[in-house]
Design brief:
CATH class of the largest domain: Alpha Beta
CATH superfamily of the largest domain: Aldehyde Dehydrogenase, Chain A, domain 1
Oligomer: single chain
Distance between the termini: 73 Å
Strand content: 15-25%
Radius of gyration: 23 Å
CATH topology of the largest domain: Aldehyde Dehydrogenase, Chain A, domain 1
């Protein structure tokens, strides 16, 4: 490397550091301005954001699909609708600042954490961003985003619209900023910056590990790999419908979607028939080999990048698999000790199907989630309370769902879990909370305690 090249690199690093400092300084100043706003003012901003995006949900879903080329527009529209409806309703009118309540002798107050740095995944950039923006504004925090490189133009358009809303309410645009163009160096610098108070990281293992290694309070959401245990007592027609609906949602890219089915031998044939009735193709041994060769990367042993988030009909056509009905889902019969990579997370409408009795089924589910996805989500379909208790006791998962689809149940749509687009994985997944991330995780709770005597 020449002297001039060294000088160029040094200049670039200095310019990047100055840019990051400016983002942080602007965010810190803007956050102090937001803290002066009344609860009513804050709710008006949220209402404005919800109204704008609810009116254009389909448009943003199609824009996201055109850029990312993974998933499908219908479910992306549904995700965004969850934010502008369910998340907004949960925040509107909720007290998140100052005195929250308590008793005469023990009172809770909430204060903002300050400046948040948020990393957004390629699988879900717009709903994930809006979710984090609504939480941060409601809790009077400023936020800086980093987006995947290919979403740069879309991200800028999205942030511009959010900043227009802020301006209309007399708020500084620096409350919501985007680091552009994104780079690993900038992400690392923001994670390490002394002015950043918290990190919200949604993405791959390396990203989440970097967030936790930053020395900052961080919530990270990495890969999921949901095991689904189907007991002999399960209601098979309902179970099959839930499984198919959960895994085909946004073409299988939701990290909390079903991944590995484990069925009791007594229920296996009925489950296969019910899955087929719901549009699943249960692959023959020759079709399994075709699918492995066509749809998986032999080096990474995961679904190939070009097949992530592609609909099952297209994947089946690639692998020369056909049925007399439209294929919605590919199910690969599997056994431990053979092609074990099939038990990894599959970000496509592809499932594996294992067979195990009561004695071994729950332990197999445990082994599969420990291999990948520990702390995220596990599912049991059963009508036996004792079996559900046993499963819940041993499973290392923050969300244990019973008789519902993994995706919709984890998101809080078909369960009483709060609707959230960030799921904590606890110490099982090297996190410090198993909670679905909501506004309470973005404030400091202060407790005013009076002496008893």
């Amino acid at each position: 490397m020449t002297i001039n090249e060294n000088i160029d690199i040094t200049v670039q690093q200095t310019e990047t550091a100055s840019y990051i400092d400016k983002l942080v300084d602007q965010g810190k100043i803007a956050q102090k301005e937001l803290e002066k706003q009344s609860d009513e003012d804050i709710d008006n901003v949220l209402h404005h954001l919800a109204k704008i995006f609810s009116t254009h949900c389909r448009e943003w879903a199609e824009k996201e699909l055109a850029v990312t080329r993974i998933g499908n527009a219908d479910d992306k529209e549904h995700k965004l609708a969850l934010v502008v409806n369910q998340v907004f309703k949960g925040l509107y009118g909720t007290k998140t600042y100052g005195r929250l309540g308590g008793t005469q002798r023990l009172i809770e107050y909430a204060s903002p954490v300050g400046l948040i740095f948020a990393v957004v995944p390629l699988t879900n950039p717009i709903p994930n961003s809006l979710f984090k923006i609504m939480l941060s504004i409601k809790t009077r925090n400023a936020i800086i985003f980093s987006y995947p490189g290919k979403t740069g133009k879309l991200a800028n358009e999205f942030i511009d619209l959010v900043q227009q809303v802020l301006t209309e309410h007399g708020l500084p645009v620096s409350l919501v900023q985007v680091c552009t163009p994104p780079s690993h160096d900038k992400t690392h610098m923001l994670m390490q910056h002394p002015g950043v108070d918290m990190i919200l990281a949604t993405g791959g293992r390396n990203l989440v590990h970097a967030a936790y290694s930053s020395g900052k309070p961080a919530f990270g959401v990495g890969p999921g790999n949901v095991p689904v245990y189907i007991s002999r007592s399960a209601h098979i027609p309902k179970t099959a419908a839930n499984i198919v609906n959960g895994k085909i949602y946004d073409n299988g890219i939701v990290c909390g979607s079903e991944s590995n089915l484990i069925v009791h031998p007594a229920s296996k044939n009925d489950l296969i028939s019910a899955l087929e009735a719901n549009g699943a193709a249960i692959l023959t041994s020759s079709e399994v080999e075709q699918a492995i060769q066509t749809l998986f990367n032999p080096e990474t042993q995961y679904v190939s990048r070009e097949n992530i988030g592609v609909c099952a009909a297209s994947l089946a056509a690639k692998a020369n698999i056909s049925r007399a009905y439209p294929i919605k889902l590919l199910v690969i019969p599997a056994e431990i000790g053979r092609n074990d990579f099939l038990s990894n997370e599959k970000m496509a409408p592809i499932l594996t199907l294992y067979t195990a009795d009561e004695e071994n089924g729950i332990s197999l589910a445990y082994s599969l989630i420990c291999n990948e996805g520990a702390g995220h989500t596990a599912v049991i379909h059963s009508e036996d309370p004792d079996e559900i208790h046993q499963f819940s006791t041993v499973m290392p998962a923050g969300r244990i769902l019973v008789n519902t689809s993994a995706t919709q149940g984890m998101l809080g749509e078909t369960t009483e879990l709060p609707v959230s687009f960030m799921q904590g994985s606890g110490t099982f997944g090297h996190n410090h909370s198993t909670d679905p991330i909501i506004w309470k995780h973005l404030v400091n709770i202060k407790r005013v305690a009076y002496g008893l005597h």
